[in-house]
Amino acid sequence: AYDEINEESQEKEEVVERVPIFTTEQHSKLINQGDRIRLPCFVDKLDGFVVLWKRGETIISVENRVISFPDNRAKIEGEKNGNWLIIESAREQDEGTYTCHITAFPPQEISHRVRIRTRPEISSVQDRVVVKEGDTVDLSCYIKAGYPYPEITWTKSNPRDNFGVKSVGSGPDLMLQNVSYDMAGVYRCRADNGYPVYSDDIVNVTVLHKPYIDKGDGFVHAHSKGSIPLSCRISAYPKAKVHWSYVDHKGRGQEISGENWEEKSVYSVSLPASEAKLGDYRCHAVNEFGSQQATIKLSNLAGPIKFQSYQVENSSSVYNLTWSGESSAPVSQFHLIVTRDGSELINTPVIPSHNTESNWTAWYIMTELEPSHQYAAKISASNSHGQGPFFGPWKFGPEQSENSGVEAV
């Protein structure tokens, strides 16, 4: 009988002295400021032991009751064999180590490390920078707030590029060397550390430079009625003075009179169709940093020719090449040349499919296009005055690069 009692006593002692085993793993959590902190403490079998939460030597809770926590933002969610420590609206001062303590013998503890990610804030050193073309300029931004330390990246946008955005660098400082006129624009520094909201600031860069002229197709078709506009797009800072002239057979410029206007850096002059001479017209722009001129041809030949197809078709082997050309006189045919990887693939006449007044349209179906090759087309048109210049190249086909530009050749 004594042995039986002794065995029962030993079994009770074993139950009482059993040490619970944590089923929770230690965590290191990065919590966004303002979010909820949720820390677990669970064991395989609690067996009446008490669960305490501590931060350093300060006791936060005993079992499911909060003893002390600033602003009453903490609570305990109890479950079988453990609980959760919940802290609402996380703040920077909540960062630290939180320990779950089980009152076994010896005491059992598991700790969780909490870091608070704070909203980044960045500011530019300069709001606006003016630099001469060819010089070097440094742009700088600095971090005012944010943990962990935010990553800084730079992008640039420009109205000239329809406000397209491109990446231009990283880090607090951005050096622009040998500055060109097309480097003018809005530079944006951005701070991001993973917080739901990033921070950014801008630097406006103005480049002092001589005029640069984009003449477009460099070709204008002469109509017999109304007025004929000639236009060139000019980039210049300070703003350029622009004048137009007619180039005679000896290459001399004769200044022309006509209605002049400027809109969004496009300078135009309107010529009465009844008085306009065929030939070359010169757009001349000048400011304190230099000058540039460009020639535009006014002709009764057909042109310019505009490509209307998408550069990349969904089909990888069939492509519908569509275009239109301008001509007051009837277009008898177009002349299509297609190259593949620079070698001539197609050289053929194409009859116009239809026309609306002076706009003539045609198309050509290409088959067996291969994704690994570069295709390009150029086209001219013939009317009663002769064959006009070729326009192109138009790059197309599966997975091809952007159009390199279209002008008369």
Give a nutshell description of this structure.
By secondary structure, this protein is mostly beta strands. It contains one helix and 34 strands. Strand 27 and strand 28 form a beta hairpin.
Mind explaining what this structure looks like?
With 409 residues, this protein is mainly β. The protein has one helix spanning 2-17; strands at residues 28-32, 37-42, 51-55, 58-62, 65-66, 74-79, 82-87, 96-102, 108-124, 128-132, 137-147, 151-158, 164-170, 173-176, 185-192, 199-214, 219-221, 227-237, 241-247, 253-255, 259-263, 266-272, 279-287, 290-299, 305-307, 318-326, 333-340, 343-350, 354-356, 359-367, 375-383, 386-387, 391-396, 407-408. The strands form six sheets. Strands 1, 3, 4, 5, 8, 9, 11 and 14 form an eight-stranded mixed β-sheet that branches. A hairpin with a 5-residue loop joins strand 8 and strand 9 (108-124). The longest helix has 16 residues, at 2-17. The chain starts with a helix and ends with a strand. Residues 8-16 and 400-409 have low confidence and may be disordered.
Describe the protein's topology:
Elements: H1 2-17, E1 28-32, E2 37-42, E3 51-55, E4 58-62, E5 65-66, E6 74-79, E7 82-87, E8 96-102, E9 108-124, E10 128-132, E11 137-147, E12 151-158, E13 164-170, E14 173-176, E15 185-192, E16 199-214, E17 219-221, E18 227-237, E19 241-247, E20 253-255, E21 259-263, E22 266-272, E23 279-287, E24 290-299, E25 305-307, E26 318-326, E27 333-340, E28 343-350, E29 354-356, E30 359-367, E31 375-383, E32 386-387, E33 391-396, E34 407-408
Parallel strand pairs: 1-9, 10-16, 17-24
Antiparallel strand pairs: 2-7, 3-4, 3-8, 4-5, 6-7, 8-9, 9-11, 11-14, 12-13, 12-15, 15-16, 16-18, 18-22, 19-20, 19-23, 21-22, 23-24, 25-26, 26-30, 27-28, 27-31, 29-30, 31-32, 31-33, 33-34
